[in-house]
Write a structure and sequence with these properties.
Strand order of the largest sheet: 1-2-3
Low-confidence stretches: none
Distance between the termini: 19 Å
Number of helices: 3
Mean pLDDT: 89
Radius of gyration: 15 Å
Shape: elongated
Structural class: alpha+beta
Helix content: 25-40%
Order of helices and strands: HEEHEH
Strand content: 5-15%
Number of strands: 3
Number of domains: 1
């Protein structure tokens, strides 16, 4: 039986051409007007995962991470 891709994780994570795993920073939905300018600016940047998380994602997304 073939392994299945974990769809919830596949929707939250992107794989770049170089193989880096990227996700959006959390907490951007609402209640952002009270945040300082620095916090708002920092929320715009994406988060890159390290090698350890990438290995764990390999089990959830076997066909996306080659």
């Amino acid at each position: 039986m073939a392994m299945k891709t974990h769809k919830a994780m596949a929707k939250r994570v992107r794989i770049t051409r170089s193989g880096a795993v990227i996700k959006r920073k959390a907490g951007q939905g609402h209640f952002n007007s009270r945040e300082s300018g620095n916090t708002t600016r920092n929320k715009r940047t994406d988060v890159t995962f390290g090698v350890t998380i990438r290995r764990a994602l390999k089990a959830m997304m076997p066909y996306d991470l080659t």
